Amino acid sequence: MFLIGLAVGLAAVVLIALLIGRRPTASLSTPSEYEQFMPPWRDYVRDAERRTAEIDRLKVGEATPIRDEIDRVERAVITGSSAIVELAVTGQKLQRVLMQLDPPAVRRELANATKETALPPDATSGRITALKSKLEQVETIESAIEETRGQIGLLDAQLEEATVSTVALVHTGQLHLQTPQIEEQLSSAVLDVQSLQAALREVSDNY
């Protein structure tokens, strides 16, 4: 478990470093790095790369005012994409813990224990208490995973909108009119995600 988490963590560090320091022709990651993530987290990471690459492809030729605007948007998109990768790492860690806890088995055992009549009351009560505690852990992690996916989805949608808008605005020569707004929207979205990330770390650190 520790080795798997370490491998995913290292893959995330590589992905984020490449996102921040990427060059126009550089790939953000290799297939093996993607394989460290399981669905749905892998899909989020792939989308993060795709959007950054789309913005990067807009930069052609020598430095120009429009290229400066593209650079500004790209930095904002990279920051958002990096936040998604970090959330994906935490989400996957929580998902692996949840798989080990085996929620269906916990719920089934608790349901059976409440119907148990063969054991002495004290033994049954202790078992039920332990199972309820385990179920509480399961529900906490399930809630955290759901929140993680929800926040990734929101940020993912905003990054998609920013990417599509940027491509269109570059072609019409009006990117400079919207760059500050795009930066502000993405910055606000990333701040929301970072607040969630801190809370999620508290949950994941308990496991």
Task: Sum this structure up briefly.
By secondary structure, the chain is an all-alpha fold.
List the helices and strands and how they pair.
Elements: H1 2-20, H2 31-34, H3 41-56, H4 65-101, H5 103-114, H6 121-172, H7 175-205
Helix pairs in contact: 1-4, 3-4, 3-6, 4-6, 4-7, 5-6, 6-7
Overview of this protein structure:
The protein is mostly helical. The protein has one domain. The chain has seven helices and no strands. Helix 3 runs parallel beside helix 6, helix 5 packs antiparallel against helix 6 and helix 6 packs antiparallel against helix 7. The chain starts with a helix and ends with a helix. The N terminus is likely disordered.
| Largest pleated sheet | none
Secondary-structure element order, as H and E? HHHHHHH
How many domains? The number is 1
The portion of residues forming beta strands comes to under 5%
Which of globular, elongated, flat, extended, rod-shaped describes the shape? Answer: rod-shaped
Question: How much is the radius of gyration in Å?
Answer: 22 Å
Detail the poorly predicted runs: 1-11, 16-28
Oligomer: single chain
Give the distance, in angstroms, between the N- and C-terminal Cα atoms.
11 Å
Mean pLDDT: 82
Secondary-structure-based class equals mainly alpha
Helix percentage range:
over 70%
Helical segment tally? 7
What is the number of beta strands? 0
